[in-house]
Amino acid sequence: MIFRPLEVSGAFLLEPEPARDERGFFARLWCQREFEEHGLLARIVQCSQSFNRRKGTLRGLHYQLAPHAEVKVVLCTKGAIYDVILDLRPASPTFKKHAVVTLTAENRLMAYVPEGCAHGFQTLEDGTEAFYLISEFYRPDHSRGVRWNDPAFNISWPPGEKILTERDRSCPDFCP
Q: pTM value?
């Protein structure tokens, strides 16, 4: 697997290295040893999937507070997503900065979202699905979000309609 650092400290774009033959290919998507060799948290306790009916569905920006902060590894298994990682760690050199990657079923790239970072995405196609590996159990009492279009972050989302839940629409502005 190839680990490409992103603009957010500790965030990576992960590229599988498929072994191809006449049948297709086989690729490792997760290897605890490889993640640890890159200094990344390699604990996985939950896997989740999201299905998104319509292009323009926006999920996020979500995170969990310490001591239940979570790492996420995100893969698009159908369709395409505009994936955003936002650094909310005050001691980080990239505090309040974000990284954007396009994950598609075709490119098979994955995003590694470090602890203390918010994560969100906007679907670029109808019927898009995303799969997550998550390092911590979901804790509703520690679950938080920041507003997707908060001017403090200056995130340029794809144009067009945004389909959000009331929860995501009503996330507060960032307050350090």
A: 0.95
